[in-house]
Amino acid sequence: MAQAMHRDLLDHRLVIVTGKGGTGKTSVAAAIGLAAASAGKRVLVAEMASDEAVMPLLEPDGAPAGYPGREVLPGLSVMRVDPFAALSEYLALQLGGRLIVDRVVANRGFRQLMNGAPGWRELITLGKVWHIEQMKKADGSPRYDLIVVDAPATGHGVAFLNVPRVVVSAVRTGPLRRHSLAVEDLIEDPDRTLLLPVTLAEELPTRETVELVARVREEAGVRVDRVVVNGVAPPPFPSGLEDLDVALRALPADARFGALPPAGVLADCASFLRARHALNRGYVEQVSELTGLPVLCLPLLVDGVERREDLVRLADPLLAAPELPA
């Protein structure tokens, strides 16, 4: 039933990936972009952080993508949304005189003033995303089939999404209200936009994810229909040997198997693997139960995600239909 209720991840126009720092949300965003490009889609991965993290995964020796962005692989482009560059671009479109606008935005005093102003970064970066979503090719088709946003960490996620709604409620007329309405319409359109929380099968990330989903439902109109649980330990033993740790524990502790450690050491290792898997599964079930959402479980990569090949290993699990834990 869960499979029938959820659209394919790549059928959306905008996927906003968020999660607690350290959960692997950037790797998930990059993996989705890579999977979409492999499926023949034109996709843009837009980073919101001050330092680029997607490019080193996709092209370790490549130049930074920067605000202009660039195509890294056929169909896959990456950019970093610099709020001040986006602000300069927006003001130039509204006021004209790009040279003057650039000088004002580059002014140190102006930047200090803006850094103290709440909400503008979120609004201008979301406005840039909306602008990109609206861009067309010469034949009238969208420039990008899918935009994947590597959004701020969970603690700032709801505020990030709520800024257009706050501006619309506060500003009654003018271009700022019109543009904020357009951004709000995109963010809250369930056919175009999906919020994708990423968590780990651990206590604190699980708690924060449950709180995020609850706040999104109460305060924001963004669709969220699944949770990604990253780094889930696999079943420790092969089929038919589910009680391997128990069998090892029943042997004399000093029993040897060739060059392997003694049976007692092997039993301790096997018990640890079983316990870690059981703990992970417990948190997977907990995040699903407390959010009421199905999950996508990504495998634990022992060496982490360091290169494009690691992202490929995450692609198929990400594109699978989300499931409620058994």
Describe this structure in words.
- The chain is of the alpha/beta class and 326 residues long.
- It has a single domain, classed as P-loop containing nucleotide triphosphate hydrolases (Rossmann fold, 3-Layer(aba) Sandwich), CATH 3.40.50.
- It has helices spanning 2-5, 25-38, 54-58, 83-95, 98-106, 108-115, 120-134, 154-170, 175-187, 203-219, 244-249, 263-291, 308-319; strands at residues 14-19, 43-47, 70-73, 76-80, 146-150, 193-200, 227-232, 295-299.
- The protein has an eight-stranded mixed sheet, with helices on both faces.
- The longest helix has 29 residues, at 263-291.
- It is elongated and about 80 Å long.
- The model has no long low-confidence stretch (mean pLDDT 90).
Task: Considering the chains and any ligands shown, give keywords for the structure.
326 residues, alpha/beta, Rossmann fold, eight-stranded mixed sheet, 50% helix
Unreliable runs: none
Mean pLDDT: 90
Task: Report the order of strands and helices.
Answer: HEHEHEEHHHHEHHEHEHHEH
Structural category is: alpha/beta
CATH topology: Rossmann fold
Strand content: 5-15%
CATH class: Alpha Beta
Write out the CATH superfamily name.
P-loop containing nucleotide triphosphate hydrolases
Into which percent range does the helicity of residues fall? Answer: 40-55%
List the strand order in the largest sheet: 3-4-2-5-1-6-7-8
Overall domain count: 1
Largest sheet: 8 strands, mixed
User: Judging by the overall fold, what is the CATH architecture?
Assistant: 3-Layer(aba) Sandwich
Question: What is the straight-line distance between the termini?
Answer: 13 Å
